[in-house]
């Protein structure tokens, strides 16, 4: 591990301590990776890629020390709940549409059989005048 890498890790750990103590100096103090990176003075992607273990350690400490759920996890849980509700609504709609299809199929069958039962055409009403006289 080179000196710069070690220095970054030290700054990230110190930033973790400050954020968890509520003494942020360079960020907004929120318990997120973005705030941690800003507080440590490192690029967010460096924290995500090179120091992923520290990012995970930070979220674990947030969960254990503050008894809070990290913000990304809250957002994911909200998205999952929203998607579950959408799936439930779609299942109900599909069931309703299946019932409609069944009823329409039965109605079509009844109408089809009703038309085939009488082979003679219906007599024309008295007030209908044909265009061409019948031969």
Radius of gyration, in angstroms, nearest whole number? 36 Å
Order of helices and strands: HHHHH
The quaternary structure here is: single chain
Work out the helicity level. over 70%
Q: What form results from the Cα inertia axes?
A: rod-shaped
- Separation, N- and C-terminal Cα atoms: 106 Å
Q: How many beta strands in the DSSP annotation?
A: 0
Q: Any idea how many domains?
A: 2
Mean pLDDT: 85
How many H/I helical runs? 5
Beta-strand percentage range: under 5%
Largest sheet: none
Region (Disordered): 112-135
Keywords: Coiled coil
Coiled coil: 73-107
Explain what this protein looks like in three dimensions.
This protein is mostly helical. It folds into 2 domains: 3-68; 72-109. It has helices at residues 3-21, 33-40, 44-49, 52-66, 71-117. The model has no long low-confidence stretch (mean pLDDT 85).
What's this, in brief?
Residues 112-135 are annotated as: Disordered. With 135 residues, the chain is an all-alpha fold.
């Amino acid at each position: 591990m080179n000196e710069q890498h070690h220095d970054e890790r030290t700054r990230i750990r110190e930033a973790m301590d400050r954020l968890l103590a509520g003494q942020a100096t360079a960020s907004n103090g929120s318990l997120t990776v973005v705030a941690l990176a800003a507080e440590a003075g490192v690029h967010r992607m460096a924290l995500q890629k090179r120091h992923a273990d520290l990012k995970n350690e930070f979220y674990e400490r947030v969960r254990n020390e503050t008894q809070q759920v990290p913000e990304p996890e809250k957002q994911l849980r909200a998205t999952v709940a929203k998607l579950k509700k959408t799936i439930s609504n779609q299942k109900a709609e599909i069931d309703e549409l299946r019932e409609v299809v069944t009823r329409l199929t039965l109605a079509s069958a009844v109408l089809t059989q009703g038309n085939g039962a009488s082979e003679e055409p219906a007599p024309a009403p008295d007030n209908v005048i044909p265009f061409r006289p019948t031969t």
